[in-house]
Amino acid sequence: MGQLTQFAPFLLMFVVIYFFMIRPQQKRAKNEKEFESSLKVGDKIITKSGFHGKVVELGETSVIIETMSGKLKIERSAISLEMSSALNKKA
C-alpha cells in the first residue's frame, strides 16, 4: 500500500496531462482529417499561410485553388480548418 501512495501523484499527473493536453490534440487532428477529406469543388478556403481561394480541382493529397492572381496547387494539410470555417460561417 505504501508503494501505491508513492506513485499516486505520478499517476494523477499523467491523467491530468492526458485529459488536458494529449486528448484535445488527438481530437483536433481528427477534426482536421475529416475537414480535409470533406473538401469539395467550389468550397471557399483559407490556407494556413493566409491565401484565400476557391477549390477548383481535388487530388489525392493536393488541391488546386483559384485566387485573384491565378491558380495555385497546395497540399490538403495546408488548409486551415479554423479560418476556413470562420470564412464559410460569415457567408
TrEMBL record:
Membrane topology: Single-pass membrane protein
Subcellular location: Cell membrane
CC annotations in GO: plasma membrane
Biological process, per Gene Ontology: protein transport
Keywords annotated in UniProt: Cell membrane, Membrane, Protein transport, Translocation, Transmembrane, Transmembrane helix, Transport
Membrane-traversing stretches: 6-22
Annotated InterPro entries: Preprotein_translocase_YajC
Similarity comment: Belongs to the YajC family.
Protein name, entry field: Sec translocon accessory complex subunit YajC
Organism: Flavobacterium cupreum
